[in-house]
Structure to design on (844 residues):
């Protein structure tokens, strides 16, 4: 076994885990690395941020996935450097050598230099951030209940989501429903019209990747839920509880959630090659680094253009299909066969807006309303890993749907010490 | 309504919430105060610490309980001072006046001056502490997997629980099962006998409040699960990964959990009366402060001796019965009737040790094994608040029982910022 090629996979997101699955049982030794011991099912993260789900329901322990994969080891480490020349990965727990390297460390928030939002707003790229946001939103209402100053009360009750892509749309809709169904009953003396949810988008429509009809439908649904949808609106700064808009307008708020852009993981820089827009790493059609046939980059980190010259979107489906291809290409190379090129099969896109409201573009057709919503529920349950997580999510959904309640609104947080503790 | 007496209840634990329930609908205005927006069902906290349950399953949002109580308001505040003479409660969000005051702020860790344990060990008195412990235990195994130093590996895999009461017994048993069933499968290359769980108790038997027969049974059960039970063993210090024992023995470990003592909430000192052992506040048989017929103290904070001259134990059942009595006494006083004295109805005690293993002393009889375990399951499900929490716990238990797995082992933690954020 010692002479089998050693594959290191960095990152256990949708892409990395797919590579691991494809290499399970093959004649390679695989070492899977991640900062966390779990995979996050981030399409449902907005439900954690709005108290509809507990974080464990959408976090799956990596060791649970790989238990049956005998040729695979998993290590919780932070990757610090990559040395392509000497084929080394430097981590906080030692240096590792590889024969094949798969880099799939995903993406992180891109604040485009808006420091005020980076420091005082809320990112929304991982579960800890979703938890911080959940606790903050609920604490804003608790604070408002004891706040004497009317201006501060208004700031506490105004929630702004920046970015009208699927993440922003889903989060804004869920926040509006949280206010409408849960906060209204939790704070019977609160004038519910005093609580505002705004969705701010630079372009002239939401969901740019969807057909225009669905963009219109989504905006209409959100407005019916009470969301103030502002199109053609750029954010220029955020400070001291005031969000500044390009036209000079100022919105008082204590909550600005950033869903307006991502950039590749900073690990991309460690590869030492020229990067593309958003810090993404250009790869060949076979998904390896130009000049390095044993270094593969996939998912949100990879930059590859489709036949129309557009980069493939930073989506879970792209990452998973790329992961599958890389595992196949690694094995093909071993067998002396030619590498396969990446061919993306677009499975469509969907976004949920609220109870019985969603939009979906699948099989070239547009869906909205309850049908799209049921499709959305089914697809997300299907893609969740593990029977336990599926049961937990299903029961939470049933409970939330039937009671209009959100059970996970206790603002539990591990103490700061947690971050530094062994 | 303005001329109705105003009752302030500090603390939404088992005692405080029971007072609130008893006053719901009565001719009083009630203001309920707590630092958190949730009640913790702490009898199941050890299951959160050992990845068997997610924290939200045993946290119930206070506003969910009080929704139907029209004469009740709830505020998330930290109480800083109490002025008995002027009938004021000073909080971080303003000063409040009261006609009747119920102090039920519970208890906190008592490290008896062992600073090493306080600073480097783990308390186990609230959900954030349970989460920190869970993440730490799992990270210890992850660390051990990449640790080159054999001594450090041993420290990382040695888990010590100090205190052989129900909390310590349940935690040690659950840790042993976590190692035995989950860690063994998660780390197939780990020699499982290298992982140690120790339970250290000063007295000559575990579960001092139980009949001796059950103490012996509990120790035997724990030993069968692989726990190293050390009786007549005092801890004298903890530093740099070494726990010191009175006889001079030293045990290398990175995990010392303190379950060996509690003291009344520091708020007891704010009352300005002489305190009893453990910082508890002496109260009359009617449960008010001597000389202050409108200041009631209940639960872990209160000191009252039973007819045999022993203080009532710091248990949920005592707090709940005291809470019920105080709400009744407040209403009796309003009606000009004499106050009732506290009469404790001992409903028995139980502790679970592991799968199909528990001990219970109920109706004057001793139970152990599967019967005690089923009794324990039923009682704890019954006392949990809310249908959602019951379903979540039941499903988790069924899953854990059938699969020998623990689903909640993703080491998710909100970032430090969370602690200071609005």
């Amino acid at each position: 076994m010692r002479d089998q090629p050693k594959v290191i996979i960095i990152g256990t997101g949708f892409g990395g885990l797919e590579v691991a699955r494809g290499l399970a049982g093959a004649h390679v030794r695989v070492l899977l690395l991640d900062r966390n011991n779990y995979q996050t099912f981030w399409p449902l993260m907005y439900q954690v941020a709005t108290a509809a789900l507990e974080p464990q329901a959408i976090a799956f322990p990596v060791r649970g996935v790989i238990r049956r994969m005998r040729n695979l080891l998993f290590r919780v480490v932070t990757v610090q450097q990559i040395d392509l020349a000497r084929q080394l990965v430097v981590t906080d727990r030692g240096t590792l050598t590889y024969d094949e390297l798969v880099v799939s460390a995903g993406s992180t928030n891109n604040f485009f230099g808006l420091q005020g939002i980076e420091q005082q707003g809320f990112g929304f790229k991982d579960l800890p951030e979703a938890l911080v946001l959940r606790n903050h939103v609920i604490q804003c209402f608790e604070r408002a209940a004891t706040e004497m100053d009317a201006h501060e009360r208004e700031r506490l009750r105004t929630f702004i989501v920046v970015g009208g892509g699927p993440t922003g749309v889903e989060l804004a809709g869920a926040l509006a429903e949280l206010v409408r169904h849960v906060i209204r009953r939790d704070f019977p003396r609160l004038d519910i019209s005093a609580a505002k949810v705004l969705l701010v988008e630079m372009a002239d429509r939401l969901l740019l990747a969807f057909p225009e009809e669905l963009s219109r439908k989504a905006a209409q649904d959100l407005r019916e839920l009470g969301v103030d949808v502002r199109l053609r609106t750029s954010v220029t700064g955020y400070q001291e509880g005031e969000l500044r808009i390009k036209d000079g307008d100022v919105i008082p708020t204590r909550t600005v959630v950033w869903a307006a852009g991502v950039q590749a993981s900073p690990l991309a820089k460690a590869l030492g090659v020229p990067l593309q827009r958003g810090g993404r790493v250009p790869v060949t059609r076979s998904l390896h680094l130009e000049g390095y046939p044993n270094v593969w980059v996939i998912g949100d980190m990879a930059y590859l253009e489709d036949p129309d010259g557009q980069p493939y979107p930073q989506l879970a489906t792209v990452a998973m299909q790329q992961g599958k291809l890389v595992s196949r290409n690694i094995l093909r190379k071993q067998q002396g066969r030619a590498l396969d090129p990446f061919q993306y099969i677009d499975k469509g896109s969907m976004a949920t807006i609220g109870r019985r409201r969603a939009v979906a573009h699948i099989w070239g057709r547009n869906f909205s309303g309850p049908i799209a919503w049921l499709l959305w529920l089914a697809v997300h349950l299907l893609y969740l890993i593990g029977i336990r997580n599926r049961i937990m999510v299903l029961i939470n959904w049933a409970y939330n749907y039937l009671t209009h309640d959100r059970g996970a609104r206790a603002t539990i947080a591990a103490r700061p010490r947690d971050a530094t503790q062994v």
Observations:
- The first strand of chain A starts at residue 6 and ends at 10.
- Chain A touches chain B through 63 residues (CB under 8 Å).
